[in-house]
Amino acid sequence: MASTTQVNGDLNNTEVLRKAKEFRPDPTYDGRSLAINENEDDIAIRSKYRPFLQREDVAKSDWVAQLELSPVLKMVEADLEQSGGDRLKVLVLFGSMRSRSYSRLLAFECARILFRLGCDVRVFDPSGLPMKDDVQHDHEKVQELRNLSKWSDGHIWISPEQHGILTAVFKNQIDWIPLSTGSVRPTQGRTLAIAQVSGGSQSFNTVNALRILGRWMRMFTIPNQSSVPKAYTQFTDILDPASTSDEAYVAAEGGSRLLPSGNRDRLVDCMEEFVKYTIIMRQHFDLFNDRFSERSEREAKRVKAEEAEGKKMEKEEAGQEGNAKSMASAGVVNGIDVQGI
User: Fold this and answer.
1) How far is Cα of residue 218 from the mean position of the Cα atoms in its chain?
2) Long-range CB contacts (< 8 A, 24+ apart) of 38-45?
3) For every residue of 257-284, which 3-state class applies, written as one string?
4) Where are the alpha helices (DSSP H) in 64-139?
5) Which of 56, 79, 261, 316 is a good FRET partner for 184, with 20 to 30 A between their CA atoms?
6) DSSP letters of 219-232?
7) Is the pLDDT of residue 288 over 90?
């Protein structure tokens, strides 16, 4: 019998790896989209929260439309059928208000992938959001952000890296989302995918910080993440559709699009993984919101309330009994029954 001893030992512990199932592309899903049809979409929502949408001729042929996504498309299709058409609700946040914001451009690419995968995607514009304070909780933009967070099943967070960390524009948005609002936790139990863009070389400072933020907000942050270095080299030029021929516009996929690279592939990986986790997590949302410490606290309050209610009832019964005795002895004076005299 041949020896199974390895010369240098199993340095990477590969012997314990599970054999992964191989998912092969299904050609019936080539070019397939589960996106919300324009005729079925809410006009106001589409206008305000879906700035990432391209002209129909571009959307049908761009790089997102050509992605091989059959395994996750099948999963989404089954989830839509099981849930009666209840789409995954995804909030996308980005961290820059520059006219050509690369975090916004990356957020739009994420949104396009998710939209094709059947998600109800809404991108929040941080313009006009006041700096976090203790006064402006009723501000229109603050309430808009909080309502979107409560509405969502998951978030996509994308921030530039500035001075080695995430931007104030992005952090301000998270600071306005409370950990709890009454009995509602706007982020707990939701999934999160994170990405960053950098002006310089590869860095992971910002995604690491976003991962800490996600944990603090009680969200499930997917294992994968995306970091795009030298972002100014990763996107195509801006195009003005009014001064560009239709043929050139379609060929350029509308302009300001993420160029082919390993960075783009990793972004697709993240969005695909995010959808898979969100489908699984959403089915057990209440279960993942349940905690031992909170159950114990609720039970202690319930027992205390029951004891207080019991004492109150005993006191009321004692009072009623005392009144009955007083009424029964009201017709007796010095031991003589004077009733009827």
Assistant:
1) 11
2) 45/122
3) CECCCHHHHHHHHHHHHHHHHHHHHHCC
4) 70-82, 102-116
5) 79
6) -EE-S--EEESSGG
7) no
**Res 20: pLDDT:** 81
Terminal C-alpha separation, the chain:
118
Instruction: Check if the beta carbon of residue 92 is closer than 8 Å to that of residue 155.
Output: yes
pLDDT at 184: 60
Confidence check: pLDDT of 336 > 70: no
> 182 pLDDT band (50/70/90 cuts)?
low
DSSP, collapsed to helix, strand or coil, labels residue 189 as coil
Q: Two tokens at 228?
A: 């795009």
330 — phi, psi (to 5°)?
-65, -25
pLDDT at site 335: 59
Ramachandran angles phi, psi of 299, nearest 5°: -65, -40
pTM of the shown model: 0.85
Q: Tokens standing for 4?
A: 């199974």
* Residue 199: DSSP 8-state: S
Extract the runs of DSSP E, i.e. beta strands, from 134-186. 154-162, 165-166
